[in-house]
Amino acid sequence: MTLHLKVWRQKDANSPGRLESITAEDITGDMSFLEMMDLVNERLVQDGKEPVEFDSDCREGICGTCGLTINGQAHGPERGTAVCQLHMRSFSNGDTIVIEPFRARAFPVVKDLVVDRAAFDRIIQSGGYTSVTTGPHADANTHLVPKPDADRSFFAATCIGCGACVAACPNASASLFTSAKLTQYAMLPQGQAEREIRTIRMINQMDEEGFGNCSNIGECSAVCPKNIELENISRMRREYLRAIFKMGGQAEHTD
Ligand code: SF4
Ligand code: FES
């Protein structure tokens, strides 16, 4: 296949960016999208040009670093798929593909297609620790967990922190991400000790980072490579109300 790429090139967050036209030749359907980008970069280097910067790590849909916007869709045209899992057979010979970084004020561009998603790390860090029993190791399975709660927790725990939900949301809301991280612990007995303070701190941090509010559009869940469900956002709102009633909005009571 020969593809006509329009790739976002930007020196840094403070420089203006532009779409650069690059022709990608000898692309096969079995290549992943990132392997196609690797080939493009090899040829740019051979021609003495600067390669296109993009993030990747695991290339197995696990680490969440490979977010790109492809033809206006975060992670591209396939549902439940990270960019690294997207194959070039999803495209046809002669296609034009527009490749841009995830766009949100809280995710400043580092260079080209790389954005700084440290705001997500700060939201997680703000949640603090989860208390555990110290001393002799408890037997596994000593805590009974209802099956539906265990399922909800495990589904929420599959969030890989990629940021596609933010990029797809017209409000650049981080509600799907934050609610998945909250749900993971709120549904389990081990997460009860700091349940309220964790909720208030993470939601406060989410707001401080400049993410917008959720207005129930649902585009976040539609682009999520892990199919994280909107019900997590409803749960986050309930958790917040619960925490406010129990703590009176005070986020500092245990330290
Ligand atoms: S909720 Fe989905 S889209 Fe958002 S960060 Fe997690 S895995 Fe990515
Ligand atoms: S490179 Fe790790 S999820 Fe895509």
How are the secondary structure elements laid out?
Blueprint: E1 3-9, E2 18-24, H1 33-46, E3 69-70, E4 73-74, E5 96-100, E6 109-111, E7 114-115, H2 118-126, H3 147-157, H4 164-168, H5 175-186, H6 195-208, H7 219-223, H8 231-247
Parallel strand pairs: 1-5
Antiparallel strand pairs: 1-2, 3-4, 3-5, 6-7
- In DSSP terms, counting alpha (H) and pi (I) runs of 4 or more, how many helices? 8
The top-level CATH class of the largest domain is Mainly Alpha
Helix content: 25-40%
CATH architecture group name of the largest domain = Orthogonal Bundle
CATH homologous superfamily of the largest domain - what is it?
Alpha-helical ferredoxin
Classify the beta-strand content into a percent band.
5-15%
Give the SSE string: EEHEEEEEHHHHHHH
List bound small molecules: iron/sulfur cluster, FE2/S2 (inorganic) cluster
The structural class is alpha+beta
The biggest beta sheet is recorded as:
5 strands, mixed
- CATH names the topology of the largest domain as Fumarate Reductase Iron-sulfur Protein, Chain B, domain 2
Low-confidence parts lasting 5 or more residues at pLDDT below 50?
Answer: none
Spatial strand sequence of the major β-sheet? 2-1-5-3-4
Global mean pLDDT: 95
Number of domains: 2
Number of strands: 7
Describe the structure.
By secondary structure, the chain is α+β, with helices and mostly antiparallel strands. It folds into 2 domains: 3-111, Beta-grasp domain (Ubiquitin-like (UB roll)), CATH 3.10.20.30; 117-248, Fumarate Reductase Iron-sulfur Protein, Chain B, domain 2 (Orthogonal Bundle). The chain has helices spanning 33-46, 118-126, 147-157, 164-168, 175-186, 195-208, 219-223, 231-247, and strands spanning 3-9, 18-24, 69-70, 73-74, 96-100, 109-111, 114-115. The strands form 2 sheets. It has a 5-stranded mixed β-sheet. Strands 6-7 form a two-stranded antiparallel sheet. The longest helix is centred in the last third of the chain and has 17 residues, at 231-247. The mean pLDDT is 95. The structure holds iron/sulfur cluster and FE2/S2 (inorganic) cluster. Iron/sulfur cluster binds next to helix 4 and helix 5. Residues 146-179 form the 4Fe-4S ferredoxin-type domain. This is succinate dehydrogenase. Belongs to the succinate dehydrogenase/fumarate reductase iron-sulfur protein family.
